[in-house]
Design a protein that fits this description.
Number of helices: 18
Strand order of the largest sheet: 3-2-7-21-22-23
Distance between the termini: 59 Å
Radius of gyration: 24 Å
Shape: globular
Helix content: 25-40%
Length: about 625
């Protein structure tokens, strides 16, 4: 057996190998798993120059793989976006917004783009337009709420030139006051195009900042244990132009995520022509194990768009949808291109599968196809997908929109949205993901929390035991399950000999932590192909260098990524999460934030503050 280049020992390593589900140590060579077993067994492979990491008893899992993420588009914009992921109160969110507005120079905007829900806030409500205007009177602000609405302040309306003469776009509405002037609220009724197109008018980052932004986005994903993603394209993400940044990072060996990308039809009416052109330019599998083309979708034709806005009635697809879709699917089948299709409702899936079955009968599919989302899919349509060799990619959109679904369709209808357990029982390939960032968060642990507890961000229980899955099954959907969707099931998703050495060392033991704390887990040591791509906590000294976020006004530079429960802030940390005792030394915890202000110990305190009513390190949110 070859000598190990890298050994991790003294851990609780979940392999997802049924023959050896948990081991103590793992040896890595040439970017792949060399051997797993006991400390004694694995350390026999060490040599003088082998890097050895003591895991201190921490839980290790295979690297997480998001089977539906808009990583490439998200990376181009990440450094411009203020994150509200995990922020516990609206007052905290508005404080962040005001600070960022004060720090953002003209003509740039403050953007809050997805990853949050009003139900996560203690106040259980959205900000008002008056609150947004007060927080940012001069800097344009765009706050996206799911795919349902966007809130713009007066400065943004002025920058866009929106006035009483601005028409409503098809499928969208500009809310107006009694005088006919726009209030700042944009509504998707039900088409989200009004939201996409408005956001597209905002300034973009310069090329070098886009490169920096994508690197920081990948680092944030690494911080959460993600090592692979399947990019589902996205509106406004044109091929090949908008792939230049990710291609350059790949050429410069700066990719910290393995990416398989799908090509998304951009222009209504010319989707077939786009796929004709692209099938001449590239082929699925082109690339390498870090960046490769994965097929078509998630949009194949705009006439098939069934928007997942549960605040609006289910949309009826256009009558010409079948003819347009069939022509495209026939082309993709002929060219042996895998494809994926956005499909929220069973009524849409029924019509899509009718088309697929006609094409499959004439020319059997020789590769995989994917139905994305499938919140209300029926058992009959799950079986039809399986019969044609397809799979279903599910995401945690219901964690963000479950309350709205219940309001419209009722609690009983929400009980199987989507019916994941039944999908697995029927033997259909299932992979998990997020669909981040415009609705849901990119945080896989929020998805794993939803999968195993059935709860929304607001704490509403959507499912009973019949549709909940255990923690190991949920983890497998995020690793080996997702690998099927890029045709890589044989090379990644488990920590077994010969597969990619992609893994995450966790802040807390996923299999032991309280259910409510699953959503706050993160990685403290992430390895991609045997290479350390992120390190925190006691491993911080191994964290690879990364240029500061740019430009200087970037919210990522100021605040970092998602909210950190252990600190009550969103900045990067080097301390373990879920500490058993508070380091803040205050006499009692706050009902909202707990002892989540230990980071303030490093902040200079004025002498006069030490005897203040709340204490120098106290909390002033009144949430007891």
């Amino acid at each position: 057996m070859a000598q190990a280049q890298f050994i991790l020992k003294s851990g609780k390593i979940t392999t997802l190998n049924k023959q050896q589900p948990e081991v103590q140590a793992i040896a890595i060579a040439d970017g792949k798993v060399l051997h797993t077993g006991s400390n004694e067994d694995v350390m026999k492979l060490a040599q003088a120059d082998t890097k050895i990491i003591d895991l201190n008893g921490r839980r290790v899992i295979p690297g997480l793989n998001d089977s539906h993420l808009h990583l490439i588009r998200g990376g181009l914009n990440y450094n411009m976006e203020l994150r509200w992921e995990g922020v516990p109160s609206l007052s905290d969110a508005m404080r962040l917004l005001k600070e960022q507005a004060d720090n953002t120079p003209a003509p740039q905007w403050v953007r809050v783009i997805g990853g949050w829900s009003e139900f996560q806030f203690a106040e259980k409500r959205l900000p008002t337009l008056d609150e947004i205007n007060k927080a940012a009177p001069d800097t344009p602000v765009f706050v996206l709420h799911l795919y349902a609405s966007a809130m713009l302040n007066r400065a943004a309306l002025k920058a866009l030139g929106f006035d009483r003469n601005t028409p409503n776009p098809p499928g969208g509405q500009i809310q107006r006051d009694a005088h006919g002037e726009p209030t700042g609220l944009l509504l998707a009724t039900p088409s989200a195009m009004i939201l996409y197109s408005t956001l597209g008018m905002a300034p973009k980052l310069e090329l070098e900042d886009q490169i920096n932004s994508t690197r920081h986005y990948m680092r944030e994903l690494n911080r959460l244990g993600i090592t692979s993603a399947i990019d589902a394209g996205g509106g406004g993400q044109n091929y090949p132009d908008d792939y230049a940044v990710i291609q350059r990072l790949h050429a410069d060996q700066h990719l910290n995520i393995r990416i398989a990308y799908n090509l998304f039809a951009q222009k209504a009416g010319s989707e077939f022509e786009s796929y004709q052109e692209w099938t001449q330019m590239t082929f699925p599998g082109d690339g390498d194990d870090y960046l490769q083309m994965n097929g078509a979708g998630e949009n194949l034709t705009w006439s098939a768009g069934d928007f997942e806005n549960f605040l609006e009635p289910r949309p009826d697809l256009l009558p010409n949808m079948e003819a347009e879709l069939e022509r495209i699917v026939e082309l993709l089948s002929e060219k042996k291109w895998p494809f994926r299709l956005h499909a929220t409702y069973d009524e849409s899936i029924e019509r899509f599968l009718n088309v697929f079955e006609r094409v499959n009968a004439k020319q059997p599919f020789q590769t995989r196809f994917i139905i994305d989302h499938a919140e209300t899919i029926s058992e009959r349509n799950i079986e039809r997908i399986g019969a044609m060799g397809g799979g279903i990619a599910i995401q945690h959109r219901m964690a963000f929109q479950g309350e709205f679904f219940i309001q419209r369709y009722g609690k009983e209808a929400a009980a199987n949205t989507p019916p994941i357990k039944r999908m697995l029982e029927l033997g259909v390939p299932v992979g998990a993901g997020t669909d981040a960032t415009r609705v849901a968060s990119y945080n896989p642990w929020v998805c794993l929390y939803w999968l195993t507890t059935g709860k929304t961000l607001g704490g509403v229980s959507l499912y009973d035991e019949r549709n909940l899955i255990d923690r190991e099954t949920a983890l497998a959907l995020w690793s080996k399950g997702s690998a099927w969707f890029s045709g890589e099931g044989a090379v990644k998703g488990a920590l077994v000999e010969g597969e990619y050495a992609d893994l995450a060392v966790l802040s807390d033991d996923y299999f032991q932590v309280e259910p409510e704390n699953i959503q706050w887990i993160e990685s403290v040591f992430t390895v991609l192909g045997g290479r350390v791509v992120y390190a925190g906590a006691e491993f911080k000294h191994d964290d690879p260098a990364l240029p500061p976020a740019s430009p200087d006004w970037s919210p990522v530079k100021r605040f970092g990524g998602g909210w950190r429960l252990s600190e009550g802030r969103s900045a990067v940390s080097d301390v373990p999460l879920q500490a058993a005792s508070a380091a803040c030394a205050c006499s009692s915890k706050c009902g909202m934030h707990g002892h989540s202000h230990a980071w303030l110990l490093d902040v200079p305190v004025r002498e006069s503050s030490k005897n203040a009513f709340w204490g120098a390190l106290g909390c002033s949110c009144f949430a007891f």
